[in-house]
Amino acid sequence: MLDLHIHSTASDGSYTPTQLVQMAKKQGFSLIAITDHDTMGGVKEGLAAGKQYGVEVIPGVEISAGVELEVHMLAYGISPDDPTMVAMLEDMSQARVERMLGIIENLRNLGIDITREEVEALADGVIGRPHIARVLVAHGVVPDVRTAFREYIGVGAKAYQERRKMTVEQVIRNIRKAGGIPVLAHGGLLKLSETALNEWIDVMTKQGMLGLECYHNAHTPQMNAFMRKAAERNHLLVTGGSDFHGVARPDIQMGAGLSGWNDCQVCRGKLLKALEK
Fold first, then answer.
1. What is the structure's pLDDT at 96?
2. Which domains does the chain have, with CATH numbers?
3. Which of 37, 53, 74, 255 is deepest in the core (most CB within 10 A)?
4. pTM of the prediction?
């Protein structure tokens, strides 16, 4: 079994990279990818743990991109020390801090007093809105993280603030420059019609995108099939991942959404071959 979309404590996951590898080994996964949000801070630990426990680990990262349409691009096979990737992720980290400070100011204007220090204390690596949500829960402002997003920090909510992001084209170029493989994450979650999504995939393929995450816990069987057809039409790699975060999202287990991926071993072979180039 394989799962190519997993988050650790380096971003907003609940388990360290080592713990993720141990879980993967126990559950029978032979290949995983650690793909934290806008950081590769957990990759080296994950690779070392993979060697220790006999689980193949692909270095990865999930990058938020897009100006009008937010898109998440998975990047596989990049060294965490690559200068192009280091520079891009450092800029993205700064953008996250800027948004955090903006959201905190928005919350204060609503009479909710939380501090930067409280948020940073919960983040081992990259700061994200889930950390702000947990502070809101701790303050008793909301009963749970989902309510925090719905009422305060989700898109369109009272204290929401947009984050500065690079264009998808820029991200794809940087991933390719760093020697990595850019793959669209959970395309079925994009708010596009099937016609528009097909057109977008065709355009981004011409820009250098190399794969589609066809299997994901939020995809329906119909969306799996749709993404497979798009991948075949554009001669793209097929990947799949659960988007596992741990206790933060208890309804999503490692391997979730991948049961219909019947040719996963064939797709695995194509991905590993591409990573060797």
1. 84
2. 2-88+165-276 (3.20.20.140), 93-153 (1.10.150.650)
3. 74
4. 0.86
Give the Cα-Cα-Cα angle 181, 187, 190 (nearest 5 degrees): 135
SS3 177: helix
Alpha carbon 240 to its chain centroid, in Å, reads 12
Q: Where are the alpha helices (DSSP H) in 68-189?
A: 83-109, 116-122, 129-138, 145-148, 168-177
Question: CA 214 → CA 7, 31, 33, 249, 263, distances in Å?
Answer: 18, 17, 15, 21, 12
Is the alpha carbon torsion for 30, 7, 198, 277 positive or negative?
A: negative
Q: 27 in helix, strand or coil? A: helix
| Angstrom distance (rounded) from CA 196 to CA 70 | 15
pLDDT for position 125: 65
The 10s digit of each residue's pLDDT in 81-134 is 999 999 999 998 888 888 889 999 999 999 999 998 888 888 766 677 888 998
Question: What are 33-62's pLDDT values in tens digits?
Answer: 999 999 999 999 999 999 999 999 999 999
Give the number of other CB atoms < 10 A from CB of residue 263.
11
User: First vs last Cα of the chain: how many Å apart?
Assistant: 24
Burial of 46 (0-12, 13-18, 19+ CB in 10 A): buried
Q: What is the pLDDT of residues 151-170, one digit of tens each?
A: 999 888 999 988 888 999 99
The alpha-carbon radius of gyration of the chain (Å, integer) is 18
Cα(260)–Cα(209) distance, rounded to whole angstroms? Answer: 24
E strand residue ranges, 25-184: 31-34, 56-65, 71-76, 181-184
Q: What residues contact 201, with CB distance under 8 A and at least 6 apart?
A: 184, 187, 209, 212, 230, 234, 236
